[in-house]
Amino acid sequence: MLSFNPADAEYLDELAGYVAVPSVSRDATEETMRSAAEWLAGRLSFAGGRVVATSGHPVVRGEWLGAPGAPTILVYGHYDVQPTGSEAEWRTPPFELTVDGDVIRGRGVTDDKGPVFIVLKVAQAFIAQEGALPLNVKFLFEGEEEIGSPHLPAYLHEHADELAADLVISADGAMWRPGEPSLSIASKGLVTLDIEVTGANADLHSGRFGGTVANPLHALSEILAGLHAPDGRVAVEGFYDGIPELSDERRAAIAAVPFDEDGYRAGLGLDHVFGEAGYSTLERLWERPTLEINGVSGGGKYTVIPHTARAHISCRLVPGQRPEAVLRAITDHVLAHKLTGVSVAVHPDEGGVPAYTISPGHPAIRAAGAALEHVYPGQDVLLAVIAGTLPATALFEEVLGAKTLFFSFSTADENLHAPNEFMRISRLREGMRAWEQLWRLLADGPHRLAPVSRDGSAR
To answer: How far is Cα 392 from Cα 77, in angstroms, rounded to an integer?
Structure first.
């Protein structure tokens, strides 16, 4: 058993240097992103850690292949972070790691710098204390996950042979809640688009022209209102095509999960929850697709009829839905509106992502469950679903023929993507112990990872 001897303060001092790099992939400079990548590469010296150029922000690569005959895993994570949002809403500076009781705060501490740091320290401890890792490990950390991984597909296709592995283990993808250990067996897919309504060729004075021309905001509001039925069901014909019926067995399994709906509602400051009729809150969260209006723009707080209005839409997808079919269905639905005096356009974003699943009986899930039971004795390991999207999972399966195991020690309540992002300090040491056990279990014994062919089947 490895000994993680440095005091927590030493871990935190080291992690603070990583958090201090404002690696916001949406708008950071090339130098800033490379600085974060170099920080990671420097901690992978035992694995030939290096920064490798892509068509966008660089990736960090490394590999330790000194275990002949042992399985090979690919560890994935990302070094980029979300924008801070309003810094006025942060209790402390977002790029200064701050200890606040039993948590640390700062942008990226839980998504995904802290979870990646855990893996680095485990690998370093193996090398320092045992001189080797128990299995072959390749590392791939990208710098564009928070903007949809636009350049990862091309990079993976170009380097598929170098990155081939029997299993991908993601340090990204949070546990569901802090009160129990959990493993995610699915994540939702994603498509996004803009709806744009255009009227006159310029903004118009609402007194001089009001009542004589169509208002794009009015027209857009009508379109948006027609996307859902009053009971919460998506009103787009074809949106639910391909989704299998939720089985009685699965509904029973979800109903058995301890879930305080009143606490969930109250924690959000709401009087009522709302969603697609016929499903429980947890069923909607884990098993049903969504269509959400994320933002509407046009005009402002002044007396004008705007000449354009735009809405941004995102859909979280479940198994059975095809991203391109969902986009086509929404486009057809929107353009079917017959609106006088305006033109309507739909602008789909690139990079639709299908939903991802891994069987609860997969050897990696069994090994991960055993590792968590070792760290959290006496606690049941919950099999949950990530309601968000991790674009790389479907890509790894398509290109490398390998399933992805989510093994993050982030927790979903830790303000991911929001002001005051935090991580529980206890998760650092718990995560190190769990990753150690997982690697040992996958390397040998009843949970040994079986080699996988490039088409994804066991060899």
So the answer is: 10
Check residue 119 and give its pLDDT.
Answer: 98
d(CA 139, CA 61): 5
Read off the DSSP letter of residue 164.
-
Q: Are 22 and 97 in contact (CB under 8 A)?
A: no
Closest CA to 427 of 140, 139, 109, 144: 109
Range with the poorest average pLDDT among 56-65, 217-226, 305-314, 443-452: 443-452
Tokens of 163: 């990155």
User: Yes or no: is domain 189-243+289-348 CATH 3.30.70.260?
Assistant: no
Closest C-alpha to 366, from 185, 237, 106, 229:
185
Please give the model's pTM, rounded to 2 decimal places: 0.90
Confidence of residue 153 (pLDDT cuts 50, 70, 90): very high
Give CATH 3.30.70.360 domain extents, the chain: 189-243+289-348
Are β-strands 136-142 and 59-64 bridged in parallel, bridged antiparallel, or unpaired?
A: antiparallel
8-187+355-443 classified as CATH 3.40.630.10: yes
